[in-house]
Amino acid sequence: MHSSEHVKIDSSSLATPEKRSQYTVSVVGCGRMGLPHACLFADAGFKVIGVDKNPKILAALASGRSPFEEPGLEEKIGKHIREGRFTITSNGEYAASKSDVIVLVVPTLVDEKLQPDYSYIEKACEEMGRGLRRGALFIVASTVGPGVTETLVKEKLEKASGLKAGRDFGLAYSPIRGMAGRVLRDIANYVRVVGGIDDKSVKLACKFLDTITKAGTIPVSNIKVAETFKLFLNVQRDLNLALANEFAMLCERLGIDYLEVRELANVDPYSHLLFPGLVGGHIPKDLYLLIREAEGLGLDLTIAKTA
Q1: Beta bridge partners of 109
Q2: What does pTM read for this prediction?
Q3: Angstrom distance (rounded) from CA 219 to CA 192
Q4: What confidence tens digit (pLDDT) does each residue in 260-269 have?
Q5: Can you list the domains of the chain with their CATH numbers?
Q6: pLDDT (tens digit per residue) in 137-148
Q7: What are phi and psi of 274, to 5 degrees?
């Protein structure tokens, strides 16, 4: 494995907002997770370029408005645009050519056959790769199946740029944990798990992400660990919610209060029964990313499939 000898970011220069202002960060995908990241990086002192293809998102941001409801976000957008720390473009190649750090936050889809659809990630990597600078750090924050960063993402970036990951640019993966309505708070207060193609990529990505999270970062042994962590987390919650919903229905038939039973059960330190609820948008998709990866390895995740 090559060392990232050409990655030019000096970790000591990330210590203060004044020092960070020399660096430009591109956030690719200004949706519900990407846009809060862009604003938090601008809060931290970086110059930020938001990259998106959606005309409605671009129009809203150009007028200093948030394209969706998220507490505290619109104020940050307006402030950073007025002060010149946040600009918007639909041209990913241009943004990459100006950037020291690129953070990929585009969605992963599942098609009608419940197969992973990485088309947004592929197109974004091809476009950003054409402008990728020697010495840049590329961080994937989109939810992906284990191995995708080191195969699809790496290959697309290398082919488009003519550069080599680990030798000419850093490559890392750090998944996002956040819920709509509290994304800014969640990003700031949840610890970030970080995997990289080599030690320098991991260390730089940790230093960089430490500028927006109070909880700090946890470096892990490799990128697959970080990718799998996010999927396990979401699939486990999916399964736990499904179990809580079934238990609640049974309690209703029995004429007893599920919440009372739950409270009693959770006195046990090994019990973590959830409140009943709906499984949120991205979690079922993440289940299929994991199932398909397991099937490719000849393993049938029978329990996960029951969710």
Answers
A1: 117
A2: 0.92
A3: 8
A4: 999 999 999 9
A5: 11-221 (3.40.50.720), 229-305 (1.10.1040)
A6: 999 999 999 999
A7: -90, 165
